Amino acid sequence: GTVLPPPPPPFGHAAAQQQPAVPPTCTLELSNMCTAGEVRDEQDVAEVIEDTKEEMDKYGQVRRLEVIRPPAGSPPTMQVYLIVQYDSLASSAKAFDALQGRTFDGRIVSVRYIPESEFEARAAAEHSAA
Question: Which has fewest Cβ within 10 Å: 12, 22, 35, 70?
């Protein structure tokens, strides 16, 4: 009984399985700005939020800004993510364009759009971990 491999999917089917790029949303995820070792306590978090918000306010009305830290006990080199939610797509697009490839503390900032639902889930996880 030789088991034949399944036939290849029809053309175009495989592409549909891949994650599509997220269309622009009001919410941006910023990474490569700071690491777990640099954001150890609430005071560090407050400073990061203050500095980031000051920069983000240049592009529009910020509704929410969350610092998403890696789980306790993670290596100090683990990424800390900042998630910024604007009140409009125009503002988030402006910030996206301005921040993409910007340098912060000698590191190149990475920016991506995320769905609101992902923001909610990650923010909730961050607050339940604290």
Answer: 12
Alpha carbon of residue 81 to chain centroid: 6
How many CB atoms within 10 Å of residue 29? 19
CB contact at 8 A, 105 and 82: no
- How many H-runs (helices) and E-runs (strands) does the chain carry? 4, 6
Per residue in 6-31, pLDDT (tens digit) is 666 555 544 444 455 678 999 999 99
Integer Cα distance of 48 and 45 in angstroms: 5
For 26, residues 6+ apart whose C-beta sits below 8 A from its C-beta are 63, 85, 86, 87, 88, 89, 91, 92, 116
State the DSSP string of 4-25.
Answer: PPPPPPPTTHHHHHSPPPPPP-
Which residue has 């009140």 as its token pair?
A: 87
Helical spans, DSSP H, in the chain? 13-17, 42-56, 89-99, 116-129
pTM beyond 0.85: the answer is no
State the residue for tokens 């529009």. 60
